[in-house]
Give the backbone structure.
Amino acid sequence: MKKIQLVVLLGVISLSSFGQKKGKFTSIFNGKDFTGWHAYNKAGQPVSDKWKVEDGAMVLTARGGGDLVTDKEYESFELELDWKIAEKGNSGVMWGVVEDKKYGAPYSTGPEMQVLDDERHPDAKAGKDGNHKSGSLYDMIPPASFTAVKPAGQWNTAKMSIDRKKNKGTFWLNGVKTVEFDLTGPGWDALVANSKFKTWDGFAKFPKGKIALQDHGDVVSYKNIKIKELK
């Protein structure tokens, strides 16, 4: 009986694991160069030397490097990465970004997970109820925890899930779920209507787009960037 029970249990575990599997994470930054990335609206051109690869991380060393975007577009995915912001620094991670000359920057089309020095950057006190702080859906939903973020100069681990099948977006920061929201429908429309993006024609209108890392003029580092596309 024990052997039979064990076989049955292993079978259940195997089926359960198979059912949960939606693909595997793939690195989209090799830690050596900017293969797979380019400056926004500048595909095919070299990345500015103000972006450097140092100790396995892509680092914006000075203002003017430009926003970086992936060569590839994504629609339904989970994204994981580590980020570190300098003192008084500001940056962000965006999705659904579309490149077109009529859009001046990734934030014209792509919603943002905020990356910020909450203690020192003035943007932390702007917006509503903390919806400009690290881990927020920028200018739309404040993070559930204001203490999940680590201080400037320390690495943070962030995760973003954009699940089109479930119509759910979710952010985590250092293992803490910070926001969850509908990707479309009345709930999303209300968020946009109550934000600075309410009159922006292209904002969040594209379900498929590129991932962007923002040049907000401050030193910021990103590493261990990987993505899992969801079926």
Q: What stands out?
A: Confidence is low (pLDDT under 50) at residues 1-21.
